[in-house]
Design brief:
Blueprint (H helix, E strand, L loop, with lengths): L2 H9 L3 E5 L4 H11 L4 E6 L5 H4 L4 E4 L4 H11 L3 E5 L14 H4 L2 H7 L4 H14 L3 E2 L2 H4 L8 E2 L7 H17 L7 E5 L2 E5 L4 H14 L11 E4 L13 E2 L1 H9 L4 E5 L4 E2 L2 H11 L2 E5 L1 H4 L2
Parallel strand pairs: 1-2, 1-4, 2-3, 4-5, 9-11, 10-12, 11-13
Antiparallel strand pairs: 6-13, 7-8, 7-9
Helix pairs in contact: 6-7, 10-11, 11-12
């Protein structure tokens, strides 16, 4: 970025990152700071990694403390924010609300009555009404999006490509129910769809079923397919892959990973490519034109 771009980024004020678990919030924070903009992490207790959080200006946040969040971000000069990282949906009874949260409690309770996309969209509207601009992580760190094509050298077979097409169709069909963003298909047979457990646990379930003899295909057949839900707000909860995804796919005995190119976040791409080569699985980004075939 040239000097003019650095000055523009800096003049926008600090970027607030609501930080859950995993490595992606820190990859985004590093990328934003490289572009000349300061960041402030609002790290969720029990989820964000303390040793990584300590590298940045930060505050430790407790879910349900909306009034504290408003006061703190205003003091820090943060108007723009992004959501990043894993975070399980809490039960309302687990939250300890402050006065600022109680003022919007009816809307929060309504937000919990639906899928994750519904809940996050409702929270975003509340934030926007309080003067925030909620941004997509890829808007502030575009390099985190995985491109089309192979990541590594192994090519999917024709059978794999049929499984990929079926997986994309399954994810599209689930969109009306705001369920998940991943499916496992083997030999044109749907083995699993992602729900509240997340991708890692879905893959662990496939591995367990395979150990019990319940998977009707040999090892090395089947694909994990990841894509955003139709109609999903792209500002948060885009599908994500990383080295742990490769490990889960290998453990489940699948042939590879396919993801929606330009709409999937990739953590540590070099490590993903190396892990895929070591496990002899393919990793491929599917472009919109190919997905439509």
């Amino acid at each position: 970025m040239d000097q003019r771009g650095l000055e523009a980024a800096s003049s926008e004020g600090p970027l607030a990152i609501i930080c859950g678990g995993g490595t992606l919030p820190f990859a985004v924070a590093d990328a934003v700071q490289r572009r000349g903009r300061p960041v402030v992490l609002y790290a969720v207790r029990g989820w964000a990694a303390p040793e990584q959080v300590a590298r940045f200006r930060h505050h430790w946040a407790q879910l349900g403390q909306f009034g504290w969040f408003l006061r703190t971000t205003r003091k820090d000069g943060c108007r723009d924010l992004v959501f990043m990282g894993t975070l399980a949906r809490p039960r309302l009874g687990q939250l300890r609300f402050d006065l600022g949260t109680l003022r919007v409690l009816p809307r929060i309770m309504m937000a919990f009555r639906g899928g994750d996309n519904h809940m996050l969209s409702a929270f975003t509207r509340v934030l926007e009404e309080h003067g925030f601009r909620v941004l997509a992580p890829q808007a502030v760190a575009p390099d985190i999006l995985a491109p089309a094509g192979l990541l590594g050298t192994r090519q999917p077979s024709e059978r794999d490509r049929i499984d990929i097409a079926r997986g994309l169709a399954v994810i599209d069909a689930m969109a009306d129910f705001d369920v998940g963003q991943a499916a496992v298909v083997a030999n044109n047979h749907v083995l699993a769809v992602e729900a509240v457990e997340g991708t890692d646990q879905m893959l662990a379930r496939i591995a367990q079923l395979r150990a019990l003899g319940r998977v009707p295909v040999p090892p090395g057949v089947g694909v994990l397919v990841k894509a955003p839900k139709r109609g999903q707000d792209r500002r948060f909860d885009l599908p994500t892959i990383g080295p742990h995804t490769v490990a889960g796919v290998a453990c489940a005995g699948l042939a590879g990973i396919a993801f929606a190119a330009g709409e999937t976040i990739i953590a540590e791409p070099q490590e993903v490519a190396e892990a895929a080569a070591a496990a002899n699985i393919f990793v491929i980004g599917i472009g919109a034109k190919e997905a439509a075939l």
